[in-house]
Design goal:
The structure holds two protein chains of two kinds.
Chain A (H helix, E strand, L loop, with lengths): L10 E12 L2 E12 L3 E5 L6 H7 L10 E9 L2 E2 L7 H7 E4 L10 H5 L1 H5 L5 H14 L3 H4 L12 H14 L4 E5 L7 H14 L4 E5 L3 H7 L2 E6 L2 E7 H6 L4 H7 L5
Parallel strand pairs in A: 3-8, 3-9, 6-7, 7-8
Antiparallel strand pairs in A: 1-2, 1-4, 4-5, 9-10
Helix pairs in contact in A: 5-7, 7-8
Chain B lengths: L1 H10 L10 H30 L8 E5 L4 E11 L6 E6 L3 H4 L3 E5 L3 E5 L4 E6 L5 E10 L2 E3 L3 H45 L7 H32 L2 E5 L5 E5 L3 E5 L6 H17 L2 E2 L4 E2 L2 H32 L4 H13 L4 H24 L14 H25 L3 H9 L4 H30 L2 H4 L28 H10 L4 H37 L5
Antiparallel strand pairs in B: 1-2, 1-5, 2-3, 3-4, 6-7, 6-11, 7-8, 7-9, 9-10, 12-13
Helix pairs in contact in B: 2-15, 4-5, 7-10, 7-12, 8-10, 9-10, 10-12, 11-12, 12-15, 14-15
Classes of the chains: A alpha/beta, B alpha+beta.
Amino acid sequence: MDAISLDPNVHVMESKDLDFYYGDSQALFGVSMKIPRNYVTALIGPSGCGKSTYLRCLNRMNDLIDRSRMVGSISFGGEEINDPALDVFRLRQKVGMVFQKYNPFPKSIYENVIYGLRIAGIKSKSILDETVERSLQRAALWDEVKDRLNGTALGLSGGQMQRLCIARAIANNPEVLLMDEPASALDPRSTARIEELITELRGKYTIVIVTHNMQQATRVSDFTGYFYEGVLKEHGTTEQIFTNPKEKHTEDYISGRFG
Amino acid sequence: MDNSNSETINIHAHRSYWKLGEPMVWLSGAALASILAIAVILVFVIISNGLGVFWPSPVARISLLDGGSTIGELTQRQQKRDTGAWRQQIKTGNRDFNSLDFRWIEDSDIKKITYPANIIALERMEFGNFYGFLREVNTPSGQFSKDLNSQFEKQFHFIAEEMEKLEDMEDDISSLSNDMESLRLKKQKLEYHGVASGSPELAKVQAEHARLQQEFEELLIKQSNEINRLRAYTATFEDISGKTKSIPFLDIVRYYYPNTMSFFQKVGFYIEKLWELLAEEPREANTEGGLFPAIFGTVLMVIIMSFLSFPLGVITAIYMGEYAKDGVVNRMVHIAVHNLAGIPSIVYGVFGLGFFVYGIGGTIDTLFFPERLPTPTFGSGGILWASLTLGLLTVPVVIVATEEALSAVPKSVKEGSLALGATKFQTLIRVILPMASPGIMTGFILAIARAAGEVAPLMITGVVKLAPTLALDSSFPYLHLERKFMHLGFHIYDVGFQSPNVEAAKPMVFVTTFLLVMIVMVMSSLAIVLRNRLKERYTITGF
């Protein structure tokens, strides 16, 4: 579609037979999935199907949950993620995340954007300034906030805060952006802006987005994975999933028969 | 028909007054109102009694029906229980004449009350106030009985200036005596370490000590000569019964003509007295004069307490809230911490005495000051031990508040930080602590208020009725944490209930209480202002 060469056969992340347990209850069953580089992949499925759990496996955010356990393999750029020796903080810089509820820090807009860089110990003012401008421009927020970068981020509107969170993730220069229902707490106008933004980011970053909104999935994604009860039931191009699903189950879900 | 009827009844059914919960609303409102009322009354009593103390009241001359008369300040009226007759309390002062400061006179005995302009009131170094008439001013160069008031004023100011010089001399004497004391300790230390009595080292110290001793004695003689010279400046006063007394100017703190003072003079007098209260040392078994050492002790104690209590409490809470795994042990510790806050403060005092004073203090003495034993240095109560005891007492308050503040930080923000590659520690420092800071400040405020008002544990860990020296002074090492100290809370107890002259001490009790309340309020207000600033900065305000 773009001038950028996109090859759906180049995968940036790949999970193989991934099981996940919260204590004794299993949440994911043998999920094997390839995530193509620089495309948008949507994860859909009814509540509690494990799509968010899967998303959080990709940057090891589930580590924070007591008594949780991941079995199987996820590779990222050829490296194994499910490895206790992995520098998980480095991983999370490369695999950014945007949450359902926008969660800016109680700091200035500027400080929010460079949070990751500060963590990484970057002090050069010129690098920081440049990153702020580039990230905010990519997140389509620059024009709205360029005059009040030192004002508090908490004074922004909901949609602006969510785009700030995207800018914050972009500032780390990640390869993958994980988005966990990024627009579900926003009004329709702000949702449209976020979707627009995702389309703009496509081709620059690999995006994995969890969504409840089927139209959203068709609008923004190239590939779609359908989860049901912890199992990846079907995975293919969005066009194929929504127009010609192979599984009856998938068809029932996308046509709104349940879920 | 039946059907529709019953529906109407249902809709308009009269809900029971009780079921609506109306009485509960009233009850809870009344509970709040009564608590507020009690608090307001308490503050009102303290303020009305405390603020009025320094306003100069007129001195009345009361002529009695039996021909006698008396002068004094009218203080309070009371109805006698048996006859229902009113009686008047008069502060007659002149303790050296009458042995009592106060006197009751029944209204039926009073013929007339007047306010003669020539009554003079004196505040003295001892024997309390004097009310009477000025008769003579005597100086070594002569006697004055004309133009008395201006002559008195002139001499009073002359002596006041001379007294400042005396005070300088006093300072020299006390610094000399400090130097001598440290030499004595040095000598003691040398002897303890077995330095032979004839050694040059010891001889040097002894010679130095002897030199200082001589200087000290010379100064003392000079001082006493000076005092004797100044004591020759006296004024003769006459009380209402015609008895005269000659009082040296040195003994007069201040004088005023209570019945001829203008409003502005009274304001000036009030401010002067207030300044004395805040900046001067106490006099007359603490019932007169200032409270500076007690204010200083209270504030310093709270500050030292904070240095222990705040970091310890916050760090503990961080570990319990953020790092410790949830389990039986963690919960037990949790419950134990909450219970610690409920232990009677005197128990902390006893613990402080055993652990800090005798345990740690005693060990310090045997290790570092063995030559001074059996005289304790750190092994007896002092401001450090009292502050640490209070620190222990307030740690649970800080822990509980900090834990609550930490757990109130939204999980989404913590995750946001971690998802950007921050470690748990970086998240804690950069996001969680700033966001929890208003709540932590609340804990500090509670701890400060509790510590400043606590008296019981101090009484056995280092507070005294009258501390000869402040814990902070100009002699090395400036901060003397082993010293005893004075405290406003203890002052209230001591002056109000241990004083030989309770009636005379009453104003001081109210003033001290007022001051203590003010100090707690000022310290809390500062903390509250700080907290609100933090809140503004770090609170996420919804949409």
